[in-house]
Amino acid sequence: MTTLNDKFFLRLIWIVTAVVLVVVIALKLVPAPETKPSFIYLLPHLIGGINATCAVLLVISLIFIKKKNIQAHKITNIITFMLSAVFLIFYILFHLYEKDTKYGDIDHNGILDAAELAAVGATRMIYFFILITHIILAVIVLPLILVSFLRGFSMQVERHRKIVRWAFPVWLYVAVSGVIVYLMISPYYNF
Q1: Does 2 have pLDDT greater than 60?
Q2: How confident is the model at residue 5 (pLDDT cuts 50, 70, 90)?
Q3: 120 touches 133 (CB < 8 A)
Q4: Which residue among 98, 111, 161, 166 has its CA within the 20 to 30 Å range from the CA of 144?
Q5: CA 18 → CA 21, 109, 137, 184, distances in Å?
Q6: How far out from the chain centre does Cα 112 lie?
Q7: Three-class SS of residue 122?
Q8: Residue (of 182, 177, 94) closest to 138 by Cα position
Q9: Residue 137 burial (CB count, 10 A)
């Protein structure tokens, strides 16, 4: 049964999800400021590292809960959630200043010529498949994560388990695919 408190938090979760989605979409539409802070070029590397760390922590969290170490499970998930929030802040900051990098743009001129396309070949399609599934699932996983946290912290264990069956593999895929996307696109950064 959903309580009044649950309804409030569920509404808040949908509002947060909508705001994050609007901000990320707006990043595509808003022109980049002319001057960039010097730290901006460190962000993709930090973002890739955060994704890798989150993937490892998610697996550790699963191990803790399988061993019935609920406290360690909670702490690990809180750390993972906080790192994911830092990831989101860094992602927004980076994409405010740096717009899309083109996969295969070897000479970093923003234009893919025939030679560049030939050089990357089919890996370009693999990259886009991973990127597109990463983006779609990243949008889907945010409310799943937030609802699973709500259920877990309010000790609604059965309801928590039901949502985590979906949230965990999606969150893990988003974290791992984020690392793969970073590794595949990083040679083409123009900095």
Answers
A1: no
A2: confident
A3: no
A4: 98
A5: 5, 34, 15, 29
A6: 27
A7: coil
A8: 177
A9: 17
- Return the percentage of the chain with pLDDT > 70, whole number: 98
Which residue bears the tokens 């899309």?
A: 100
pLDDT tens digits, one per residue of 12-24: 999 999 999 999 9
| Fold of domain 4-188 | Four Helix Bundle (Hemerythrin (Met), subunit A) (1.20.120)
pTM tops 0.85, yes or no:
yes
Sequential DSSP letters for 11-50? HHHHHHHHHHHHHHHHHHHSPPPSS--GGGGGHHHHHHHH
Per-residue pLDDT tens over the stretch 158-168: 999 999 999 99
Cβ neighbours for 96, distance < 8 A, ≥ 6 positions apart: 27, 30, 32, 33
Is residue 13 within 8 A of residue 143, CB to CB? The reply is yes
